[in-house]
Amino acid sequence: MRKAKPVQRVNAAITAHTAHIVTRSSGQRPCVSILCTTFNQEQYLRDALEGFLLQKTTFPFEVIIHDDASTDGTAAVVEEYLERFPDVTYVREKTNCYSRGLSVARSLREICSGKYIAYCEGDDYWISEAKLQRQYDFMESHGDFAICLHNAVVADLINRSAYLSEPDGADREKSVTELIAEGGGRVNPTASFFVRKEALNDVALGPVEDHFIMLSALEHGRAFWIARPLSVYRYGALGSFTLTGSAEGYEKIRAFNVDYAAALRSVRNHFERCGVYGAEIEKAFANKLTELEENIDSALAREELLSGGVSILSATREKGLSPLVAIKVSLERIGLFHLMAPAINYVKRLLAVRRKKQQGTYLGRYIGTEKITESWLVR
Predict the structure, then answer these.
(1) Total-model pTM
(2) Residue pLDDT, tens place only, 41-77
(3) Which residue segments constitute the domains of the chain, with CATH numbers given?
(4) Own/partner long-range contacts of 80-84 (Cβ < 8 Å, ≥24 apart)
(5) Do 43 and 14 touch, CB atoms closer than 8 A?
(6) Of 33, 316, 361, residue with least CA distance to 200
(7) Which strands make up the sheet holding 61-67, listed edge to edge?
(8) Tell me: the pLDDT tens digits for 299-331?
């Protein structure tokens, strides 16, 4: 019964906007392919689907959902929509690709029929009915741009706050060096990506595909950023990539950064071969690689401290861990962190809110029970 209300809202959206969503058999080619990737996101997926069906456009678009072998009720949510809206393309893997180290970026790109691909992961969602139209209009009138991004609201479920990905400002071009340094995630959420499909012919593969999709596009054109927040990025959502206080968790973080650095070096070398290079871009790659190397060293130091291989003093002086992190890991090692966690998390939340206020991006307290909309932003 608790799912009835969200489904009713979506049905209304379907009735209002079906005309612009095309079928494979209609003979009408979509201008935009909406590509939604999901895994075990039953709790969030309806918001993503609502965002697609909310769109008001002057052009036809298609919706493609890729389910990486979810084991929760994600498939049932999609099936509910397919019953009422059979034109959505649903690709469901039999076995999980991510756990086997397989990327489906290239194969999914080939499924897309549109001139442009608009990305949105299943735990994020769009909040503006004009999102696609606004990005489409810009790209159609600026042929030298390969990707269009926009600001977003970060629904931070860890620090119980909402803030903008970036401070308010004017629409502007983003440079290659900026996007190398920033990466994806909270700064450039995947749900903001609107990319020329032809710019993804050589899409790079890496453990964080959002960053590498941007870098692939930048080989073929420029990047534009819209200052208005048009989507929501859930940070700390169930099933997302987070650090756990265990040796296995820190090992995964280290392995992630090792793979990230290796993929980034490959892209850097590719840029150099293709002539998309220069002193500033070389410096940006070097700085990002240094950041990843520091992440690797930090994860390794946490592993060693957790196992008792080094002392707190050694971890802070020689390994570079901050005192707060070293204390946290030490408490994890002796099994007392759960007792201190509420106080530590409270202090972290206060510091995070203070930092966002100083940056001018803080929007307000958010605990995850309310859906963020455009009207929410102007409360």
Answers:
(1) 0.87
(2) 999 999 999 999 999 999 999 999 999 999 999 999 9
(3) 4-235 (3.90.550.10), 247-334 (no CATH)
(4) 80/7, 81/10, 81/49, 84/11, 84/14
(5) no
(6) 33
(7) 89-92, 61-67, 32-38, 116-121, 194-196, 145-150, 222-226, 172-174
(8) 888 888 888 888 888 888 888 888 878 888 888
